Amino acid sequence: MNILEIKNLKTQFHVLDGVAHAVNNVSLSMEKGEVLGVVGESGSGKSVTALSLMGLVRPPGRVVSGEILFDGTDLRTLSEKQMQDVRGNRISMIFQEPMTSLNPLLKIRDQISEMVMRHNSISKKDSYDYCVEMLGKVQIPYPEKRAKEYPHQLSGGMRQRIMIAMALSCNPEILIADEPTTALDVTIQAQVIDLMLNLKEQYDTGILMITHDLGVIAEIAQKVVVMYAGQVVETGTVYEIFDNPKHPYTKALLDSVPKLGKRSKAERKRLREIKGIVPDLFTLGAHCNFYERCPDADEACKRIIPDLIEYENGSSVRCIKFQGRNA
Amino acid sequence: MNKTILKIKNQPNLIIGGIITAVVIFMAIAAPLLAPYHPVDDADLMVSEEPPGSTYLMGTDEQGRDILSRVIYGSRISLSIGIVTQVMNTIIGIILGLSAGYFGKWWDDLVMGLTNIMLSIPSMIFALAIMALIGPGLINVFFALGITNWSYTCRITRSQVLFTRSLDYVKAAKALGYGDIRIMFTQILPNILGPILVIGTLGVASAILLEASLSFLGLGTQPPTPSWGGMLATARNQMFTAPWISIFPGLAIFITVLGLNLFGDGLRDILDPHSVGKIK
Amino acid sequence: MKKLCFILLLLFTGFCFFPGSSMAAKSGGEFNFIAPYGGDLSSLDPHKTNRTQDYIVILNIHRSLYKWSADAGKPVLALADSVKVSQDRLTYTYALKQNVKFHNGRNMTADDIIWSYQRILTPATASPGVRSIRIIKGADDFESGKATAIQGLKKLDDYTLEITLKNPVEPGFSLYPPEIAILPKEEVEKRGDSFGVDPVGCGPFKFVNWVKGSEVVLEKFAGYYEAGKPYLDKVVYKIMPEAASRDIAFKVKELDATTVGSVNYPEYKGTPAIAKNMIEVAELWTRVVCFNVDYGPFKNKKVRQALNYAINTKLINKKLLKGKAVDPVGYLPPSSPAFGTDSKGYEYNPERAKQLLKEAGYPDGFTFECLGTDNGTWGVKAIEALIPMLKKVGVKVVPVRMEGAAMSARAKSGDFQALIWSLDSGPDPLSALSRWESVNERVSGNYSGYNSAAFDNYLALARVETDDSKKMDLLKKADQTFIEDAPVWFYNYNKAVLAYHPWVHGLQPVAVELMYQDLSSVWVDENSPRK
Amino acid sequence: MSEPLLKVENLKVHFPLDREFLSLKKRYVYAVDDISFSVNEGETLGIVGESGCGKTTAGLSVLNLVKPTGGQLFFRNQDITDISKLPKEEALKLRKEMQIIFQDPYSSLNPRASLKTILDVPMKIHNMGSAKERSEKIEYLLEKVGLRLEHASRYPHEFSGGQRQRIGIARALSLNPSLIIGDEPVSALDVSIQAQIINLLLDLQEEFNLAYIIIAHDLAVVEHVADRIAVMYLGKIVEQADYKDIYTSPLHPYTQALLSAIPIPDPHMKRNRILLKGDVPSPIDPPKGCSFNTRCPKKKDVCEQVEPVLKKAGDGHYVSCHFA
Amino acid sequence: MTLYVVKRLLQFIPTIFCISLMMFVILNVLPGDATTMSGGMKRQLDAKTAENMKKQLGLDKPLHIRYLHYIKGLVKGDLGKSYLRSESVNDLIAQRLKPTIQVSLAALLIAVGFGIPLGFVSALKQGTWMDTLSMVGAVSGVSIPQFWLGLILMYVFSLLLGWLPPQGYGGGSLVNLIMPAFTLGVGYMALIARTTRAAVIEVLSEDYIRTARSKGLSEWIVNRRHVFGNTMILILTTVGLQFGSLVGQTVIIEKLFSWPGIGSLLVDSIFQRDIPVTQGCVLVIIGVFLIVNLVIDLMYVIIDPRIQYK
Question: Fewer CB atoms < 10 Å away: N or C end of chain C?
Fold first, then answer.
């Protein structure tokens, strides 16, 4: 049973330079309690997809078309009021920048309790107690004390834990994590990822993990969606993606990352690079978005916009050269 | 380039303000061509205080001078007051702010101390004291207002310099062997002109108003110089007996200052959308 | 007897104003007046201020030995019932009123007058009134510390005072001004400096309070020596330097009376309801542009005359000042006893002016700077009006607006070419003209630096002349000489105008300064919003 | 082996904090606290560490962009601890020798200068040839870093992040330096661009025999480019070794934790993580004894008392731990 | 905190000292002195009396001696004695300070009361006609010469409508306060509205606002709880800095409305060359500015937990 299914989502930004096709016909699905990794470089549309899903795209951005089926309901048909009931309650989100994502003027417990009280009929006092409990769950030392502190008194790692505590405080069905560890140091990142996985088990929350870091994806995700220039180019299980990538972009991406401990004197010279740059989202042509950079591209790629081909349940790839499972 | 035009198109403030400013500047430049009479010499007491009519479109003042001509010539005076004083303020502010922010240490302390002192003296009062010292007159107004209002520019320049100085390209310039002066004027200054320009534009507006206030106290430009502030101040006693004498210069000030303010606001929105916090 | 006469007179005047009115109807009510000159008052200690603004109020708190009578056009006795003058006109013996009380309840005696005059003369007081007291014999010795008392001041008994003068001059002119007020010694000493903000006098009104920068409130002094007066219960002086604000305040009936500037003059004149309630008076102030006779072109008499011919003075007075001025003849105004009825001033004659300039060696004219203040009547505004007129004869005038204090400093130092000012030209014609004596420095008011032996001579003769009409003749001749020499451009004599609401009665045409209204005889009828 | 190109001895950089009112004690941020290292010609030294460990400050102070508080710097045996004290000519010559590439491609280029200006002015300052020669050099540099000549008149905002980083590299190269400090040169770039820049750096090193100091938080990147790696923690070097030794035989518990924390892009590799407790302490009040003792899984009493010294643990392998 | 306040108060000393020196020099070299004639003077003092007066006032002593004397008094909190008025400057200012503070605070209230909502509306409706209208309206306020506005208001509300008294203090009653305060506050209002608008727009783009929205909070709550406070932090400084110039502007307003404040006292005393009074007024106005800004800084502590003064 898919708890979330996005179909043909299109989100555009109407700015002075023209129209940016930030999310261009994205479809993906996610099962209850699963960790879905969305990987892509900057500008691939992964964050905008998440914001579209939350109904938090602000002008000049606009969700143009598509369906966002959450537990069978199309979120796009809900009123703003109904959407507010979903946000934070059934779907919650944590962001990349823990340093700026909390209101500097409010105490931690107030920031958490305002959300708990918004979605549950609970007294302020109880919500404070609950807040302390949640802080304990995200392994914040001295939760009673911390709850009364302000964000600036906490380190980045702490704040991200608080964001997680907050996001989980209403027992959401889906937690969207938009690059939750990118701004953190490696050792702290390890702590946070560890924490998220633990909590996922505990709460049975599905996680939509958005990141550019293939390492993080490999560690946490069960299923992976690879995005490029506003489109999904490949989906599959984490093993499929990493062991046997189908799309040339996925392949190139995996090859271009320096891998720890894999280096020898000879290998030092050659990291595999992807030539060129990410295409301009304002001027996408009627062709495969990756063709300019693709090592395998030919004339045909220049003429056709490839479809996302599903070759197995839940696995698909967007490439006209793809010939089937073992090609 | 195209993008800039698009940006401007989206700023009604900037367009309205820009048009008004342009018209006033045009008026100032082309005053001798536009004005039907000489603003000072063509006075005739026989026709004093004529209401607006076909001969005198805006009427005449108590000396029998054509108000339209005086308003047109007045744009020269009032604009030059605004611009000259603001250029002076800006130059002082930039030099002090730039050097203070860049060199820091005791010089910074000194400049900031001075700036804070200047900031705490209301400009009206400082200008008043200076004008009392040197007496009324156009050049004196330039001077008095030109040395009173630099503290804002200085402060903002300094804070911008502090911010810009920490940027990597300034470090790179240093590593590349750029000298201090070169860094200040080629690496830092061009990148902080935006907010300074905005302050300057708004400053032009406030200088025009300040001159009007000084004129009210009898310390503005020297009659018969047709400055709008001076005209308005002189005519204030006739506001109800011969309203046209005060209305037209008053409107000229209002429209020009409004235009400059809108222009400045629009400029800020384009150049420096997040500038509020930087004033600190 | 006297008292009876007085009451009769009072009743008579009362009937004239408002037939059927009684004393009771007259008394009571509040009167909102103005203090229009410059900013706030400085001090209500008459001996320590020289500002008209302060005198307007001081006048009604304090009393001097004499007071100005608008009817008589000269000073009359105030604190004395009568005076005996000696043959040589040097000794005056005053029979002081016995019912004059200070606001603290004490009777005023000759000692108070002596003490007050000594205080004025004491250098530490730095009083502007010293000049007035210097007419008394022995004043110089006292001033320089050589004597401990003024020789010419003698108390015969508590209510009899003898004053001996240096010269046979009319002492009333010197002793009437508000700054020569008689003060109660004990109150002055008790209060020290703060006497200026909490004055005690013997005038018709008691000081109540002074909201600095806004208003001064006085209330009726029940013990005032003129029976039945004052009528008003309360007087409020609003400190209002802005003419436009005054105009509105008057129109909304917040003021009972206001001074009218030239700007509003035609309007007020043209409004019948107001026009019939206006007092106009040719004040004893002459407005002139002083030419600095030490400055190049102005050394030549012809140039100065030429400028007088070149300016259409009447047009300026008519249009710029809207007729709120009296066209000039000489220095002395028409209300002065020495006004030369047969003397003629300068007429507008640009041809003559050109001719004279040519003769003087300035056929192409010249340029000069003229200083002036911001004043609406006798400030740079008037100089501006000269620009086109003088341009016609080739002379360029550059107005230089200055603040009063700065200009005054330059006037005194002689560092100017010309300046416009309003000069005090009365009430005593001799002292008015003596300003221009060559012995006087610029510091003492001879701004032009006028220096004429003939003029000096007339004045010297007039000073010792005991026959009044001969004296006046001499002064007329002096004025004529002054016109001829034209060290100034004769601009106008001030026409002061006071407008009041119909419920106000008893304001007087005071020629020395229209704002010097003695409010003791002013009353308001029941139409007043404040009664 | 000949003398190293750059020798850093006991470098200290302490930033004073604003003094508190009425308090006599001045407090400092101990950003870099007594580190020593050296770089040979043509060699790459990698410096890794987490944010706030002082690695960037160390790099900047080598270039005299931050004044060292203590210690000495030698470049080709010349004392360069304070370049500003040297004669102007001399100082300029030294500036030429060492250049820097920054992390953020957006703030490292003057937005108001065209590419040509960015490259031309430094050469002009150093009197490198006539206008024509310089413009030829610009052409050559652009080609080297993979940009085209027609780009020369453009302004930084017209380039993508990767291209900007190339401009930064061209700018550093323009003076023919022998040492380039790369301060997180690829961490702000997308994965696909990262590889391009790493390859470019490696190519240039080979061609011009450049020495690099690559400062980064990403151990994988550093390991890929460096010959030797120094690991920094709280202003100190805790371990220094050949790139291979760091990975295969890390001795310091911090290095071990760091290595284990790095996510590997391989779903089959589920490792045993060494999870460190808590956060990095503030460099204003570094812990007594071993600076890592607050988080160290192997902590003993001695660690709280005695500060370990950097000791030799193998061929070119140094570590500062009581138990390594 | 107390320590911080003490520290700040101590920092006032050099500022006040510098300003007093600066103003002392400027004022004492002004042409003319207290003995020369100025507006409304009846007659010229004769030379001897003028000299006398100068001696009484100590004006015959050299400048630095006078300054030393002045500073000695200042240290004791004594601003000296007026040259022309029979009062000490302390007393004079004490009487006039209250009206000025009253009118300034009322103006501030009007400015803030209208300016902040206007700025909010404008920012929340950014780009709409309401935005343009509020901003043009706000900017208009700052574009009218104050004395002109004052006279127009006087004309309309006193003469035509008869609602408000045209002038005077009226014992500080509200009806007397309205017009001067409005005239003074309207320009300031524009500034606050503009600053607020920019601040709100800035705050709206912050990450924590997105977080707040992601929690399911309604727009109203987001604005009230998250936007408002953070906006205040951005505009407080402007409010404080501008309050100084507001007090400076009372010079005009007080003259116009016969308001018995320190501004009109200052103008009068400049024109009368009553230097101790001028000096005193300037120092007090600056003192007010410094204290207001100290209060603003302390308000930061209340609003912004990140700021702690020790």
Answer: N
